[in-house]
Amino acid sequence: MKLLITIILTSLLCWENAKASHLRLQPRIVLGRNASPGQFPFMVSIRYGGSHICGGSIISANYIVTAAHCVTTQIDGDNFDTTPSFLSIHAGSIHIERDGVTVQVSEYKTYPGYRGLMGDLTGGKLSPTFEFFTEHIRPINLAESDPPNFSNGENLGLGSLIQDGPKPELLQHTFCPAYLIANVKCIIHMEIESLLCLLPQRRDPSGVCNSDSGGPAVYNGHLVGIANYVKGLCGSPNPDVFANVAYYADWIKDNSDLQNSDSENSNVENANTENLAVESRDSELSNLENVDSENTTHEKSDFELSNFGNVDSENFNAPSD
Predict the structure, then answer these.
(1) C-alpha span between 89 and 10 (Å, rounded)
(2) 141-246: CATH homologous superfamily?
(3) What CATH number is given for 40-127 in this structure?
(4) Residue ranges under compositional bias (Polar residues) (predicted)?
(5) pTM for the whole thing?
(6) Which residues contact 274 (CB under 8 A, 6 or more apart)?
(7) Containing H/E element for 1?
């Protein structure tokens, strides 16, 4: 009963803020809000030639993870990699253009067999590395298992506030967490394993937008997803699609220094999770069929694999050599 009351109050609060936001005509990631300094110290901006192109996450003093399509262009089924010397990250600041530190990417590895949404993730090595962590620069732990279905997740980004609109001055995070769904309806419709969906709550469509690719989805202080794809316009009721970090965790560890630092990372104090809902709604999984179909179910035609073969450049900006 207490959980039900909390859910109802949260939904009402989100809806009222949505209406107020529309009345003030403030375009931004729907129901997004500015992050506070140090709130998400693992978040980084991926830069190409000094300009923001994607989000990413610090996983150790030496490595970050992001989406493969942020650094690789696919043409006729072939991958063309961006020269690492063009890539850098900006960390330690919620401001997109000031404060913090900029670090060069010395090399990166893309998941073998990456194609479209299959294996859309990359691990980047930094040079120089972070010599020490601060309250503004700190890694996030990888998820070792799928989040419970219908648990509340949160995504972050420095991408456009509205479709084809301006970018924010400050890091944005979702005010009303979305539902995390692994291996149920949206995954079945796409017929692709290893993905995680972030589904907007009823009446509260939200999601990633231009240049939010590679950014994190977070649950319970752990990195559970890497932004891969959005179907349709920004803020549509369609689910946003993420690489499922738990599925790729072993590969990420094998291609970084995490195998040697698991015990250390397990003690890392992650970003403030007071705004992340940690209570599972797994018990409601059986009610999946009863949830409003406009928000949770989509016809097969909406998820044809032909629509997912290549990342939609209109929704996610990726660099090219």
Answers:
(1) 35
(2) Trypsin-like serine proteases (2.40.10.10)
(3) 2.40.10.10
(4) 258-275, 285-294, 307-321
(5) 0.72
(6) none
(7) none
